[in-house]
Amino acid sequence: MTKLSVNINKIALLRNSRGANYPDLVKTALDCETFGAQGITVHPRPDERHVKYSDVPALKGKVTTEFNIEGYPSEDFLSLVIASKPDQCTLVPDLPGALTSDNGWDTITHQTYLKSVVHKLQSEGIRVSLFIDPIPERIYAAKETGTERIEFYTGPYAHDFIKDKEAAIHDFKYCAHLCNEIGLGINAGHDLNLDNLKYFKENIPGLMEVSIGHAIICDALYYGLHNTIQLYLKQLDV
Ligand code: PXP
């Protein structure tokens, strides 16, 4: 089974645009769960333009499905994660001010550093996932850090899918088999949507979780949040 974790950053962006608590982030997260989401993801960025640091403890107390916090492992971020004890922390290499995550870790160059961060989080009982591109050497190096999972950065897949879906999935499929062989759990996220999700799921053996934000909120404008989550769950039910 592949879990659908809904990234609620765009809900926070909408709320922040008016300065009041509407839409209510915690209520939306709980509604996503009621509508079938099997996880909630937040990505508190240093400028707090989406989810704010102060949102995290409020969510942690209420979310009953898998709670995933993703972000760059700055000191502030790590303190927040350790205090909040989510089920999973996804480490991404984007620097402060990045518009969105647009590449995975170079797990070879940053191996020693990642090893220490992974260990720090795991010693607090938090599962770790490393955001990564589908490059075999980096998969092996990710395993060396001790992480339990990787999250494939699927932006390039979504981009190339429009032209040639077989070419788009090729490296992900190869690296997914590698992950299965060496015992790394597989998550995936970025630019997944109703067009490209089913094909991804069909071709990635052992896909444990997808984290999707932007497209779910865009689709919800037309179909409503409940219907949209059901539509995404259906894509994963293959
Ligand atoms: N995974 C990571 C690491 C991300 O940074 C993001 C975007 O915040 C996502 C998944 C979700 O991407 P999208 O909003 O395109 O679905």
Give the second-level CATH assignment, the architecture: Alpha-Beta Barrel
Distance between the termini: 9 Å
What is the alpha-carbon Rg in Å? 17 Å
| Shape annotation | globular
Mean pLDDT: 96
How many domains is the backbone divided into? 1
Structure report:
This protein has 11 helices and 8 strands. The chain is an alpha/beta fold and 238 residues long. It has an 8-stranded parallel β-barrel, surrounded by 7 helices. Helix 5 packs across helix 6 (136-145), helix 6 (136-145) packs parallel to helix 8 (165-182) and helix 10 packs across helix 11. The radius of gyration is 17 Å and the shape is globular. The mean pLDDT is 96. Pyridoxine-5'-phosphate is lined by residues 7, 9, 43, 70, 90, 92, 100-101, 131, 151, 189-192, 211-215.
How do the helices and strands line up, and which of them pair or pack?
Elements: E1 3-7, H1 9-16, H2 25-34, E2 39-42, H3 55-60, E3 66-71, H4 75-84, E4 88-91, H5 111-122, E5 127-132, H6 136-145, E6 149-153, H7 155-161, H8 165-182, E7 185-189, H9 197-203, E8 207-212, H10 214-223, H11 225-236
Parallel strand pairs: 1-2, 1-8, 2-3, 3-4, 4-5, 5-6, 6-7, 7-8
The chain binds pyridoxine-5'-phosphate (PXP).
Properties at a glance:
single chain; 238 residues; alpha/beta; TIM Barrel; 8-stranded parallel β-barrel; 11 helices; 8 strands; globular; binds pyridoxine-5'-phosphate
Gist?
The protein has 11 helices and 8 strands. With 238 residues, the chain is of the alpha/beta class.
